[in-house]
Design a protein that fits this description.
single chain, 0% strand
């Protein structure tokens, strides 16, 4: 028995495939709503972090030029 089979069971590939199956918009379940919200939340969060990093780099460049 392998370590991942001990921790997560023997059917890890089957559960992994079921977990990342595309959500069907016709099928309204809590799981589909959670996946959709998770994707949107992390997309928006990534955009905001990228914007913040660009602003910080711009401030760093401006300070480097002035000094």
């Amino acid at each position: 028995m392998r370590w991942y089979e001990i921790l997560w069971g023997r059917d890890t590939k089957e559960r992994e495939m079921a977990a990342w199956k595309d959500a069907d918009p016709e099928e309204l379940t809590i799981d589909n709503a959670y996946k959709t919200r998770w994707i949107w939340y992390h997309t928006i969060l990534g955009i905001l972090i990228f914007t913040t990093n660009m602003l910080l780099i711009a401030i760093l460049v401006i300070l480097a030029i002035k000094l």
